[in-house]
Give the backbone structure.
Amino acid sequence: MVTRDDRGLRRGGSRDFRDRLRGTPDEASRFVGQLATHATRRDFHFIAAHEGATGPLLGFIYGYTGEPGQWFDDRIRAELTTEMAVRWLADVYEVVEFGVWPAVQGRGIGGQLHDALVSSLTNRTAILSTRQRATFAMRLYRRHVWQPLLTDYRFPSSANPHPIIGLDLHQKTNR
Ligand SMILES: CC(C)(COP(=O)(O)OP(=O)(O)OC[C@H]1O[C@@H](n2cnc3c(N)ncnc32)[C@H](O)[C@@H]1OP(=O)(O)O)[C@@H](O)C(=O)NCCC(=O)NCCS
């Protein structure tokens, strides 16, 4: 069952959340710390998929409205032309994390999470960074008409290139 669950943050410390979606204890605590910070940002939405109404967490997607001065916004803004920054960042929802437990991938849960979040947004655009090799994710994004903004952006903390993609929420072409 896919539901909006902005208080999913409280479940962040649960064993279920850590074990299923974030491998090592270090990754788990970094993630929970980041989530606590992001939960204070404008329009924070956390959408969760559970087995049944109250069963284990199977996947989630979350984000918030980006603003100048924030780490991600500032870095992407610096890479875009002024025209692109106006178009894509003036009123942008940043999708931060999106994941489905590997054992249940390919059953439509990711698509449902994506659609539940996107259909709730009133922003002009949405933006996210993904991994070059995350082919299932890229397949889902292409089907939902996300567009490439930067093809191989390198975050300071990572040697790997990351595509930055955007969705025009006013076109409402999402399926
Ligand atoms: C991306 C992700 C969230 C999608 O979740 P999901 O529950 O598998 O999503 P869906 O079942 O809706 O499938 C999405 C697409 O991938 C395909 N797919 C997913 N898993 C598949 C598999 N094991 N075999 C074949 N196709 C698969 C689906 O067929 C679907 O393609 P379609 O839209 O053309 O029909 C999930 O794959 C994931 O957690 N990946 C690792 C983390 C990641 O990359 N997150 C995104 C970071 S931006």
Notes: The first strand starts at residue 2 and ends at 4. Helices lie at 15-21, 25-38, 71-79, 82-89, 109-119, 135-143.
